[in-house]
Amino acid sequence: MFLDWRVWLFFLIYFVAVVLFLKRIERGPAPAESEVNREEFKNVSVSAGELILGIFLPFLLNDLVSFVASFSFSKMPWRLVSLNFWVPIVFSLVSLLYALIVCKKGGLWPLFRSTSPPTIPPMLLKGFFLACATSYLVGVSYGGLEWIFQQKPQVRTPPVFGTFAPNGLMAVLHILAKFTIIPLVEEIYFRGFLYNVLKTRLPMLAAAVLQAILFGAAHRVGFLGGILYFLFGMVFVAAYETRKKLIFPVLVHGFISAIALMPALIMEVQNFHMPASNWEEAQTTPAWIESVPPAWVKKKEDGMKQWQYAIDTWGSQGSKRWKQEINAFNAVCTWFPEDRTACAKAKIGIVWVYFYLNDYRRSVIEADRLIQKYPDQEEQVAAALLRRGIGYLLLQELEKSRSSFERVLNEFSQFEKPRDEAERRIKWLNGIEWKGTP
């Protein structure tokens, strides 16, 4: 695969383009009003040890964060939400603090000092267009890499859903941090600190390529995903070099993140839902669930086609409108109550949707209803018991969680996937009980 001519052509085109672009920047004069005194940054005392630690700091932090997160989650799984919110914030602040300490003589400040309010609007417009062009370039590169390597590059999609229910504050804060705090800190660290320090020891092209490689590697997305982040790193350093103002790559980075987060923002609006805060509330039906199949749900020939239609139209294979998907699942049992297999599949779909919206109490209640009404549909009952156990685990009701997992092992061990998952969850419970719960 690595000897395929398309691979070499792909890298050759990008390498030549990057070299020509950076050489043009290196030879071209910077605008007078934005010129930064490079000697001022060269006078910042950064030892070789500090530079080496700076290069490896993102990787060390990643490993430390992964260890702390895995330990804390194995001991207290219900803390997943707060972990996924605070980990990137703490990671960014530690990186920023290190850069500021190392450049204690003020080497980072000149990178912002030449920015004045009248210069911001033109940079906003140019930054937006550059972000759109970069997003298109990376999108084309994504398709090219998939075609060449016959596999999809790994990229970090916003983990808002599955971490935070689309219920307001936490999801919104997470999204805002992704295109405000995170771009600012990453640009200060990778372009403001790391790139400028490398440039005092290496030619500009070598410093640019090295910081882009480190930027891609620090995101831990594998080789193919790293190529895409390498492209981002080169664009950001080019944006910095064209204007000699760090605010410009910060804006470009923020716009790119905002473009990437648009689908999550749309999903936030489409799927707004407040999880039940207690078991009494969980017994009530949300106002957005209709008592009869709505007019926008088309009736199909049989129950299985109706179930598949719900998934393909509004579920993970469709528009990802989870509330509409529940209404479409309910239509399966309304129109085809005799098809017990299709009805059970629709009910487990409802269990999954509530779980995905972090409404664990309603998910548990729907799982109980499925177990009671469709005991003959053993595979779906096993799946419902598994979801029930995980829901109770995240609600910190450990005994009920354990009993659900044990039922999967004792009564439905013929189904490999739920059986293996139940075994793994019981091991977690054993670890939690041995260490003690808070």
Topology:
Layout: H1 5-27, H2 38-42, H3 48-75, H4 80-102, H5 110-113, H6 120-149, H7 169-179, H8 181-199, H9 204-218, H10 222-243, H11 247-270, H12 279-282, H13 303-314, H14 322-335, H15 340-356, H16 360-373, H17 378-394, H18 398-411, H19 416-435
GO molecular function: endopeptidase activity; metallopeptidase activity
Pfam family, one: Rce1-like
Keywords: Hydrolase, Membrane, Metalloprotease, Protease, Transmembrane, Transmembrane helix
Characterise this structure.
The structure is a single chain. This protein folds into 2 domains: 5-270, no CATH class; 279-435, Tetratricopeptide repeat domain (Serine Threonine Protein Phosphatase 5, Tetratricopeptide repeat, Alpha Horseshoe). Helix content is 72%, strand content 0%. With 438 residues, the protein is mainly α. Keywords: Hydrolase, Membrane, Metalloprotease, Protease, Transmembrane, Transmembrane helix. InterPro entries: CAAX_protease, Rce1/LyrA-like_dom, TPR-like_helical_dom_sf. GO terms for molecular function: endopeptidase activity; metallopeptidase activity.
Please identify the structural class as seen in this structure: mainly alpha
Mean pLDDT: 79
Tell me the fraction of residues in β-strands, as a range.
under 5%
User: Total helix count?
Assistant: 19
Q: Could you give the order of the helices and strands?
A: HHHHHHHHHHHHHHHHHHH
Q: What proportion of the residues is helical, as a percent range? A: over 70%
Cα Rg = 26 Å
- Would you identify the regions where 5 or more consecutive residues have pLDDT less than 50? 29-37, 158-165, 434-438
- First-residue to last-residue Cα separation: 51 Å
- Largest sheet properties: none
Count of domain modules: 2
Secondary structure: number of strands: 0
Query: What is the overall shape?
Result: elongated
